[in-house]
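Side project, low priority. Logging it here so it doesn't get lost.
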Amino acid sequence: MSKISQRSNAFRTSVLLAGAVFLSIEPLAAQNVRFDPSIALEQGYSDNVGFSGAMEESDTETRLQIVLPWDRETRKSRLRFSYTPTLTKFGDFDQLDNDGHKLSMEYDRDFGSGSGLALRLSADRTQTQGDAAGIDDSDLFLTDRTERDRLRADLRYRGNLKGRWGWGGTLGLATTSFEEITDFAPMPLASGAEDRDEIRAGISVTRAISRKSNLGIAYDYGRFDLDMSGNEDSHQVSIVGGYEVSRNERLSYTIGGFQSNGEAAVGGVSTDDSRHGFSASISYEKKMKRAGLNLALRHEPTSGGARVGTSTNTSIALGIAGSIASQWRWSTSTRYAQRDSSDEALATLDTIAVGGEVERDVSGIFSVRLQTNYITQSGGDSATDETSTIVARLGLVWRPLGRSPIAR
């Protein structure tokens, strides 16, 4: 078994064990348990299965995907599990046949008086990248197709201080590994990706300005350890705030600056470089009767995502999802991202992604689903960086328990 597989399997086991612990300490309320499994069989097409600008090869794919979501909610807590195995077989390039796995656990606990915590664990093995609905660093910019293992753990805590004052703390751990697909028939896929580990921690102090708004200051630390490019320490100080526009509408923001120091030169050359600049983020959410809207903007130092070296990334993403009557469901998303490498010798990368999904029920347990995703990338330092890909899938979805979640 490869090192990548060992790390991924160990983390998946940790997610399951953590879930078992929380199940044992939380009282079970069967009437609040929901289980809504589904099985989808889809046929798809891609005009660039290798995601490479050096050789664009098209192919068809057949995909079997099983979704097993489990959700339990009590008055003060919520526990969610989800496991999604996916089997993909290509028409011509069987070297790309793969099985993907996505396992996640989310736990939220309210301790009362404004205090609570949120825990997120996830393990993901996939060859997919460039999803327009995602804004994770490792998914923003295309590289040649690779096997990807992404493991992540995030813990957030909020507590009360005296009067209108409150505080919060965050801790995040992540590791991303890539494995090149060297037996691809046209030519080996040299990924241009780099393994990396991340540690993030932060603390904030806020004051309630009114019943609907708060304002404060935050400090965030990031440690990025890259397999070939050395390491980097990042420090950010920001003003943070939030405003509850209405019961179903909320805005939050940060604005500040960062200073990064370390050995982050590409090619393993130690330079002890430093970089600094402003950082900012905006998050806006709105829930409507039959739709929901999410807008996110970020400008921040990152570990570099999938590509070699660290970077400062700028991204903006908009997602809208809704339903029409009781039979139609739809979603659409678009995203722009820019990658400014910490190595001044490397050119800036830009990507634009657009995606959508439409699903219609044809019976109580069956529905038809159409998915599309397009991403184009420009800039960079070689012809392989100038690339684009479009993926479209049409399939049948079976929900053995019906559309509505059923308590078990």
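Brief comment: The helical segments are 3-25, 137-140.
Revisit when time allows.
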